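Problem: given the chain below (301 residues), write out its structure.
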Amino acid sequence: MTRYDDGIGVGAVGAVELTRVRQLWHLLEPLHAVLYYAPAVFEEAAALGYDTKERWPSYFPLRAAPLGPVGAERVTSAFYSFSPRMVAEHIDSAWATADPAAVLAARSRGIDRAYRAIFGDRVDGPELAEAAALARRAAESVNTAGRPLAAANAEVEWPEAPHLQLWQAATILREHRGDGHLAALLVAGLDPVESLVSFAAIGAASVERFASRGWSAAEWESARERLTVRGLVDESGAATDAGRDLRHRVEHHTDQLAAAPWQLLGSQHTARLADLLGDFWVAVLSSGLLPSETTLGIGRV
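Solution.
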């Protein structure tokens, strides 16, 4: 099995396998994603004045708030795969509705309510407290150089409640991974819309699901044509062997770039965290809040 090598050393005592790195992403991502689907969060966003009839008007300020009152160009850069038009539609007016500090407070209140509804009495239990402490240790170890969303979330003050610390840690770690994923896409020569077309081509999610990122049919088709010229997709839009190999290398590179916090936490503590997160992961998935298909391709790649 492959160990990561990012300057700390391959084969060191307590080295964490890349399969474990990916497992921790799969376990933590749903805990973070509650932010974008929980009714309690929508209620907090609506109280600030955001339209919550659909998820996007609140999604953009909720995720971008740690960056401060930035404009659409910087949010588009950090979010990468969203159409610039879609970002501008929601960000151009976001900070006139509420300032980032108010949004950060609202998302904390919303997660508090959502986690209490999902986890019940376990929200104050020793297992969650232990998981939060381990996840926080990993999150506090991340190197945020070149990772704007991870850096922005790492600057947010840590809450006192363990369940809110768990969400904060999950968020820092997922944005750290996400920032690294964008670097892997850039190395692979995949622009924002090409990254989606190539991912759909291997069956990570349906084209309709990826269409939620706001690209027009003409932009999607143009990207598909560019990938066809490169030999990465065929005329039907399905990935060629070369296309599948490229996406595999992107995901492998992403895992490598995401490994450092788990390497620093150590294999035993990382394994313990994975064990502790299992029940909370099941609770989130069983809540019915999250969609069965996402653009992340979890469980399908």
